[in-house]
Design goal:
The chain folds into 2 domains: about 1-45, no CATH class; about 55-390, Alkaline phosphatase D (PhoD) (Purple Acid Phosphatase, chain A, domain 2, 4-Layer Sandwich). Helices cover about 25% and strands about 20% of the residues. It has helices at about 1-10, 35-45, 85-90, 120-130, 135-140, 150-155, 165-175, 180-185, 245-255, 285-295, and strands at about 15-20, 25, 70-75, 95-100, 105-110, 110, 145, 190-195, 200-205, 215-220, 230, 260-265, 300-305, 310-315, 325-330, 355-365, 370-375, 380-385. The chain has a 6-stranded mixed beta sheet, with no helix packed on it. A 6-stranded mixed beta sheet has the order 8-9-12-13-15-14. Helix 1 packs antiparallel against helix 2 (about 35-45) and helix 3 (about 85-90) packs parallel to helix 5. The longest helix has 14 residues, at about 285-295.
């Protein structure tokens, strides 16, 4: 459904068309200055049947199922062995969250490929992931919810300016089998689900930090020792992280009844000490997120993120009506170091840089949550244990 609607939207500025059963059957030449509309029309001619698809997986839990254990992963290089996926497949879990960079579809080996109108590398990357036995095992073992980040979006650090994002969205949604109940008929890949009865309800919110995001503020010093690529946007920059429609949707979601809200952002929300992609590159948008949670009186929010090729745990008072908590887990098989010196003032313990994954364990009887970083052998190497009262859920 979304593909047909996007194609119809692209007709603005065309000379005319004939539509039948949501498929374009005849068009006149687009205006010369409407290249994006023409590209969208071309993408609408590509059938879903030629796009890669994940192996058949488990259906999401029914709305009344109580969740007690959720696994988290991000940053999976499909060209490398990924034994952590096999380990996770062997664990008990009610839900699996794939939090972005689920493939590296914007590069082949060490070289980036971001200007291919057909997104051939992205499509190949997803096909390679689908063929991996360890991913097949994980897919068969746990129901999944999925967010994307730049490398499975199709271009490193890209946002709304990425010309081929329409096809990238279709590749993502077709591969993961996302339907209209999930991502709807609108642009973007954000969606949410609720599980469990009142008193034991978990809301999972998957944000899209790519499709609508403004370009970041670049640092002139990037490349010099210790200098990272991005700076916080100056006051009045009018940069946008989620786009107007997604912001409105998020406000509505935060007003739904829930005891625990797992808000998945592919990029980090809380830390402010680094110059890589994060909400801290847009301070006004980061504050807007905190203010929205305050205004909606949304209890139970816990942030989950990936992207960083290291795992972190954060805890901070004063941002939300209760303590703010974030668990970052990354990477499944793209580790760049064994130790990292980075230390945000709200960071709990040192970063964990070797390959890792995450778990959220909920004890409904004791009214406690455990945010855990797991090493490649499944041992807990970092954790943050908190009570329901710590996140405003009594």
């Amino acid at each position: 459904m979304k593909r047909a609607i996007l194609g119809a939207a692209a007709l603005i500025g065309l000379g005319g068309c004939i539509s039948e059963n949501n498929r374009i059957t005849r068009i006149f030449a687009p205006k010369p200055d409407n290249a994006q509309a023409a590209l969208n029309l071309y993408y609408d001619t590509i059938p879903d049947s030629v796009l890669p698809k994940a192996p058949a997986g488990m259906s999401l839990p029914a709305d009344d199922v109580v969740l007690s254990r959720i696994l988290l992963a991000s940053c999976v290089d499909e060209e490398k062995a990924a034994p952590i996926l096999s380990r996770m497949a062997g664990e008990q879990a009610d839900l699996m969250l794939m939090m972005g960079d689920n493939v590296y579809g914007d590069r082949d080996g060490a070289g980036y490929i971001s200007n291919d109108v057909e997104l051939a590398e992205l499509r190949e990357a997803f096909a390679e992931l689908a063929a991996k036995p360890e991913f097949q095992a994980l897919r068969a073992a746990h129901p999944m919810m999925v967010a994307w980040d730049d490398h499975d979006y199709g271009a490193n650090d890209a946002g709304a300016e990425f010309a081929f994002k329409g096809l990238a969205e279709r590749v993502h949604e077709v591969f993961w089998g996302l339907n209209d109940r999930d991502v709807g008929a609108w642009p973007g890949t954000y969606y949410a689900r609720e599980f469990g009865p009142d008193g034991q309800r978990v809301q999972v919110i998957m944000l899209d930090t790519r499709f609508f995001r403004s370009a970041l503020t670049k640092s002139a010093d990037f490349g010099k020792r210790g200098k990272e690529p991005y700076l916080p946007a100056p006051d009045g920059s009018m940069q946008d992280m989620l786009g107007a429609a997604q912001w409105t949707w998020l406000e509505n979601q935060l007003q739904q009844p829930a005891d625990i809200r797992l808000v998945v952002s592919s990029i980090q929300v809380m830390p402010t000490v680094h110059g890589w992609e994060a909400w801290s590159t847009m301070p006004a948008e980061r504050q807007r997120l905190f203010d929205l949670i305050q205004r909606t009186k949304a209890n139970g929010v816990v942030f989950l993120s990936g992207d960083r090729h290291a795992a972190y745990v954060y805890e901070e008072a004063g941002k939300l009506p209760y303590q703010a908590h974030e668990l970052t887990t990354s990477s499944v098989n793209v580790s760049f170091a064994t130790e990292l010196p980075e230390l945000d003032e709200h960071q709990i313990g040192a970063a964990y840089a070797p390959e890792n994954y995450g778990a959220v364990e909920i004890d409904w009887t004791a009214r406690r949550i455990s945010l855990q970083v797991k090493d490649k052998n499944g041992l807990t190497v970092r954790r943050d244990d908190l009570s329901f009262a710590d996140i405003g859920t009594e």
